[in-house]
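Worked example (supplementary).
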Amino acid sequence: MTRPDRPEPKAGVLDIAAYVPGKSKGTHGKTLHKLSSNETPLGASPAAKAAIETVAHNLELYPDGAAIELRDAIAETYGLHPDRIICGAGSDEILSFLAYAYLGPGDEAIYSEHGFLIYDIAIRSAGATPVVAPETGLKTDVDAILARVTDKTKMVFVANPNNPTGTYLPFEDIKRLHEGLPPHVLLVLDAAYAEYVRKNDYESGIELAATSQNVVMTRTFSKIYGLANLRIGWGFGPSHIIDALNRIRGPFNVSGMAIAAGIAAVKDREFVTRAIEHNDAWLPWITEELEKLGLEVVPSVGNFVLIHFPDEDGKRAVDADAYLLERGCVLRQVGNYGLPNSLRMTVGSEEANRAVLQHLKDFLGKA
Ligand SMILES: *Cc1c(COP(=O)(O)O)cnc(C)c1O
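After joint prediction of all chains, the assembly is encoded as:
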């Protein structure tokens, strides 16, 4: 066997398409409104900011590796047992832990056609094979997923609601998916946008994760809590899974500042309520105003909308993106999600939302 003349990554790593984050700058280096990463326009809870300052005096000290106080605060807020929670540097880290702990070469993991691309990265990083289930009407399709389960399937990732489509599955469908999976297949419910959803038939998956042996729900502090910069997420699931994840977790994976801010943020319910109210006001406004311009908008339950553009020279998503970037408004191209003629727009401040709508009106020549 000939050996390579330099180190080579294990199989699968170079098949990974590196994650492309939302742009943060317009074309002239100036950004007026960044609506490309589903960040909240409300900033973070003042209590969270204050909590960080106290930690800033003790940067030489390791944080509490088990994040006990943060898990307690999350447990109290969401009515969970703290022993069944694991915290991570963003929920992305929890998704990676799950892949590393339960997937290896020869295994398959399923996610849906326009699903969050971190799943693909996590699956391939673990050396396993991603299997993509087609969607129907830009929605996760339970039957398409179940039809792709084989002897090799070990895991299924579902973002509910999904990013970048903004669509969701009613809990009935999630239950049907769970019932259709063999008990050794791990169902991961990524509920990053759960707080924003205002639908009676929606559930984030807490109940299912509490009562099953093969369901984990992940959550994040990056979206409604406005702490994306600190990297905090968490997972909730059966003890045997949390135990496995804790064995591969870095001993100090969540920083002291993240822990302190997370505790303060999760307790500031008034801040969360304001964020929900802001979204409830502006999500329908943006949707209706875009539709008035003749654009097709996918009905969203999150803090963002997916906008389809006309298939017409000069009016396509890339053209709209360039036009907005020139004017300092940054949306997200989603071609790598199989949506080449769409843009994703985060619900921003009133000023940002109005600016984007005005620019799109001009762009489409509707002024
Ligand atoms: C933003 C997002 C996350 C959160 O990622 P963090 O690592 O917690 O910042 C997870 N899942 C989906 C679908 C998201 O859009």
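Two points are worth noting when inspecting this output. The domain at 13-43+270-363 is CATH 3.90.1150.10 (Aspartate Aminotransferase, domain 1). Residues 38, 90-92, 116, 159, 163, 190, 192, 220, 222-223, 228, 233 surround pyridoxal-5'-phosphate (CB under 6 Å).
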